Amino acid sequence: MATIRDVAKLANVSTATVSRVLNNNGYVNSETKKRVNEAIEKLQYRPNDVARSLFKGSSKMIALFVPDIKNPFFPELARAVEDVTNQHNYTFILCNTDDSHEKEVTYLNALTQKSVDGFIIVSSTITEEDLHHITSPVISLDRKFSSKISSVTVNNRKGAREATAYLQSIGCKKIAHISGPQTASNTEERLKGYLDVVEHEAWFNSNYVVTGDYRFENSYEIAKQLLTNHNDIDGVFVANDLMAVGVLKAAESLHIKIPEQLSVIGFDGITIGLTTTPSLTTIQQPIYEIGSRAAQILLQLIDHPEQKVIQEELEVTLIERDSTKRKE
Amino acid sequence: MATIRDVAKLANVSTATVSRVLNNNGYVNSETKKRVNEAIEKLQYRPNDVARSLFKGSSKMIALFVPDIKNPFFPELARAVEDVTNQHNYTFILCNTDDSHEKEVTYLNALTQKSVDGFIIVSSTITEEDLHHITSPVISLDRKFSSKISSVTVNNRKGAREATAYLQSIGCKKIAHISGPQTASNTEERLKGYLDVVEHEAWFNSNYVVTGDYRFENSYEIAKQLLTNHNDIDGVFVANDLMAVGVLKAAESLHIKIPEQLSVIGFDGITIGLTTTPSLTTIQQPIYEIGSRAAQILLQLIDHPEQKVIQEELEVTLIERDSTKRKE
DNA sequence: TTGAAAGCGCTAACAA
DNA sequence: TTGTTAGCGCTTTCAA
User: A283 φ, ψ to 5°?
Assistant: First the structure.
């Protein structure tokens, strides 16, 4: 690999001059500039980013922490972040944390040592404390850690309320809820939204709420149990689409007809909801937009560290499909 | 951030000594070592990886190129690569190439400037030529660029043959094929495998083969057309699961019963095949293993650049589910 | 308009 | 067993 010195030598200038034309800053005679560019061309010279990073103390890299990229919610998010990141000549680092606090902290430290310029974090376990010694900007998704950390969120509670109210509006009388794992950030809000709507119904009791883990397999099992124990349930609001698909399959195995006997609504709006039979009614999050807004805000924070906290909340949308049906 | 000099000063030694205890190499008195470690502790010192990289000419980072992480085949692959990568204290960079040669080349160059230590590439457009000036090791997935580049693949042709023969074995008489896009590396092999089995059948003609783009939406459309035009088709081998799901939905919309009237088999073995109704029979690739083997081999190549090309081929497995059924 | 030189933080010869 | 020093490749002050 040619270095800046090779270029300087060939063009008969100092490295400072080469650096100036490279970065387009400072005065440089158009004649010499031409010579330098020719030398660059001839040597196929590409500046060494590591050396630049060392000098600047910044690496032009940003990292995204997600629990597990295999969960189909996250690829779209990751894609959005990478697209924006890329457009601004940053490099994109993906970290799967498995919701493990230890992994998160390890990554945070390892990447700080690499002068990573910023972090986009989907996490339920990270605290303000953990970020205290981190000097680069951080933005959280899905949840506000604190009023001091920037974030992009959706109104989970409102969405959950909408989902539950929708089930009521189409005539469901006994509505159950399969919630996310207690460790997950948004679980609580979605549960609250559900409770907002049904808590004071005469029929309601806590047996209508069961806790899942946001995955398909487990949801299939617990839904079978729930539906077997309570055959009066005619509507389920499920805290995410993946689990909602589990409910669909559970009902199928119990020969419960959807939507005739049971209406199911999910949350997220991931593609899988289009591929099931019946297709899945859901509360759609603007996933790509969440990711790209987060990335944009992060980059802005990197450029203007003096800027204060930015918190944005995006809207969710009810998408009616075939897993719910208005009763006659 | 404290530097090695701060530590040296506090421990009353030279930076060389600090470096020695940091890297556990060279002789250092256990007394001084203790002093140094105390200073490190007290200052919360963490070595600057960028400076290390500059010196070493290696960044302890590896990159994975995939067409699009939103395609559910790739998250599992990415996960595998990250897991292995991580275990060996490397950092994982994810690049979505959209099958664009330009993007690939841009990434290759940008990351080389960052001293990335190796590349794992899923691509149909990269050539040996493109890699000529890349000094770090490269391993390709899905396809062998050339006998000079290491690779981890599966036997696509054999798998396709198995899929098609399986349809025959359960009694299908007219078997169609929905192939991948011509640009994709493995399309051709899967098509060949299909042809190996049916090409010489009396009924066979090229109308039984249509070209998809590996995505769900498009497959849904072309399958509707195919099934409408040829109502004698009683089996379809689809080049990947995502498109196979499209076929399932297309059949549903045409009121064609699966598996009674039509058997469908996919390729890949991604999770979505478990969530459809009916669930999807498929040729399963060992996706995680492909990713982790690739990462392991790459790391080995990084450590031993003198090593020659390593090419591995893994086995695929037929998974019978509900979208195919033995005719009585 | 250009160059000399210091320095980003680290490692590894070489010397002591 | 430890320290001195050069240097990885770049940018930027400062001086000319």
Answer: -100, 110
If phi > 0 it is left, if psi is from -120 to 50 it is alpha, else beta; for residue B151 that is beta
Q: Name B195's Cβ contacts closer than 8 Å, sequence gap at least 6.
A: none
CB contact under 8 A, B95 and A92: yes
B58 touches strand D (CB under 7 A): no
Distance of alpha carbon A55 from the chain centroid: 32
pLDDT tens readout for residues A252-291: 999 999 999 999 999 999 999 999 999 999 999 999 999 9
Parse chain A into domains and list their residue ranges. 4-47, 61-153+287-316, 156-285
Query: Is residue A133 scored above 80 in pLDDT?
Result: yes
CATH code for the part of the protein at B4-47: 1.10.260.40
CA B20 to C1' C13, in angstroms, rounded, equals: 14
Residues 6+ apart with CB under 8 A from B310: B139, B150, B297, B300, B301
Q: What CA–CA distances, in Å, run from A140 to A113, A190, A296, B38, B157?
A: 21, 18, 13, 35, 45
Residues of A in contact with B113 (CB under 8 A): 46-49
- Cα angle A31, A49, B79; round to 5: 145
Which tokens hold the place of A293? Answer: 């807004």
Q: Is the CB of B29 under 7 A from strand D?
A: yes
Instruction: Give the strands of the sheet with B317-319, arranged side by side.
Output: B209-211, B175-179, B235-238, B263-268, B281-284, B317-319
d(CA A290, CA B318): 39
Establish whether domains B4-47 and B61-153+287-316 are of one fold.
no
Q: Write down the residue that tokens 């995410």 correspond to.
A: A240
The three-class DSSP label of residue A102 is helix
Q: What token pair was written down for A194?
A: 């559900």
The rounded distance, in Å, linking the Cα atoms of B162 and A100 is 41
pLDDT tens digits, B198-255: 999 999 999 999 999 999 999 999 999 999 999 999 999 999 999 999 999 999 999 9
Q: Which residues contact B266 (CB under 8 A, 6 or more apart)?
A: B238, B240, B241, B243, B244, B245, B273, B280, B281, B282, B283
* CATH code of the region A156-285: 3.40.50.2300
Which chain B residues have a beta carbon less than 8 Å from that of A275? Answer: 216, 245, 248-249, 272, 275-276
Q: Residue A87: closest CA among chain B residues belongs to which residue?
A: B103
Model pTM score: 0.95
CATH number assigned to the domain covering A61-153+287-316: 3.40.50.2300
Longest dimension (CA), chain B: 88
The CA radius of gyration of chain A, in Å to the nearest whole number, is 26
